């Protein structure tokens, strides 16, 4: 498991490094090795946050505190557990106040309710000074969450990077030197990738099917399949190779039977 440790107190950071290394040694034959990257500032950890499966954070002296860093991680698409190590800042009170400001719109999967759910469940707490037994509990929790995590797909554009789930991608097709990706909710993105490289990235997911060397579709969003013509739910159409037609029909039939 890859762990990011973010603490702007050098002594506390070094102590936490030692505790995590000892925990890794104890668990090497059970839950496996912990790979620990240690950071003292926000910019460094935000460069590649999706690498990590757990975060231990306490930032108290800079312009961004631990809770604000946690929000940055969540907004960047991080779904891994974020453990706030409580010292001079009462993170519990800060998050209670933040939750009180999230409007209760009553819609299950609205942006507000998703944020509320993440603040309540994704963020955990660990009091300083760190006790070994409590740290072990948090590591067990992080390992359990890792086993339940739905993998995401990285889409890297010229300016932005998105991390999306399988059924947020409707289809992708070659667009000049880019791969054009159509997403749910009318979103679109041109990414810095060839279609071959993009399909290699998503080939392990169940719902993607290549209709040619330059396109692939998510069969969850197929509206209609007629002879050599595939229509997606947004009305976009693709020509299907006769060699792929039979396999595509079987894939769609299997998906709909499972659904």
Explain this structure to me?
With 259 residues, this protein is of the alpha/beta class. Helices cover 37% and strands 28% of the residues. It is built from 8 helices and 15 strands. The chain has helices at 10-27, 42-45, 66-75, 91-100, 111-121, 132-148, 195-202, 242-258; strands spanning 2-7, 35-39, 54-58, 82-86, 123-127, 153-156, 161-164, 169-175, 178-183, 188-191, 208-212, 215-218, 222-226, 229-232, 237-239. A 5-stranded parallel beta sheet has the order 2-1-3-4-5, with helices on both faces. Strand 11 and strand 12 form a beta hairpin. The longest helix is centred in the first third of the chain and has 18 residues, at 10-27. It is elongated, with a radius of gyration of 22 Å. The two termini are 33 Å apart.
Write the layout of secondary structure elements.
Blueprint: E1 2-7, H1 10-27, E2 35-39, H2 42-45, E3 54-58, H3 66-75, E4 82-86, H4 91-100, H5 111-121, E5 123-127, H6 132-148, E6 153-156, E7 161-164, E8 169-175, E9 178-183, E10 188-191, H7 195-202, E11 208-212, E12 215-218, E13 222-226, E14 229-232, E15 237-239, H8 242-258
Give the percentage of residues in beta strands: 25-35%
* Overall 3D shape: elongated
Rg for CA atoms: 22 Å
Number of helices: 8
Uncertain residue ranges: none
- Whole-Å distance between the termini? 33 Å
Main sheet specs: 5 strands, parallel
In spatial order, strands of the major sheet run 2-1-3-4-5
Measured as a percent range, the helix fraction is 25-40%
Overall SS class: alpha/beta
Secondary-structure element order, as H and E?
Answer: EHEHEHEHHEHEEEEEHEEEEEH
Question: What's the count of strands?
Answer: 15
Task: Tell me, rounded to a whole number, the average pLDDT.
Answer: 90
């Amino acid at each position: 498991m890859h762990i990011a440790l973010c603490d702007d107190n050098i002594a506390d950071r070094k102590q936490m490094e030692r505790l995590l290394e000892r925990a890794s040694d104890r668990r090497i034959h059970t839950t496996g090795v912990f790979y620990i990257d240690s950071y003292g500032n926000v910019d460094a950890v935000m460069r590649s946050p999706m690498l990590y499966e757990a975060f231990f954070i306490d930032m108290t002296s800079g312009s961004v505190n631990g809770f604000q860093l946690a929000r940055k991680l969540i907004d960047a698409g991080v779904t891994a557990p974020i453990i706030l190590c409580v010292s001079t800042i009462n993170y519990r009170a800060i998050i209670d106040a933040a939750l009180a400001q999230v409007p209760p719109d009553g819609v299950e999967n609205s942006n507000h309710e998703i944020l509320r759910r993440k603040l309540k469940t994704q963020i955990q707490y660990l009091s300083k000074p760190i006790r070994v037994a409590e740290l072990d509990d948090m590591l067990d929790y992080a390992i359990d969450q890792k086993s339940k995590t739905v993998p995401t797909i990285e889409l890297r554009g010229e300016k932005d990077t998105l991390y999306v789930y399988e059924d947020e991608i409707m289809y992708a097709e070659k667009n000049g030197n880019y791969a054009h990706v159509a997403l749910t909710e009318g979103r679109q993105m041109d990414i810095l990738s060839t279609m071959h490289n993009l399909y290699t990235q998503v080939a392990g997911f169940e719902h993607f099917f290549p209709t040619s060397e330059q396109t692939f579709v998510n069969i969850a969003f197929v509206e209609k399949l007629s002879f050599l013509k595939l229509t997606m739910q947004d009305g976009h159409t693709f020509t299907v190779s006769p060699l792929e037609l039979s396999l595509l029909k079987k894939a769609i039939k299997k998906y709909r039977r499972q659904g």
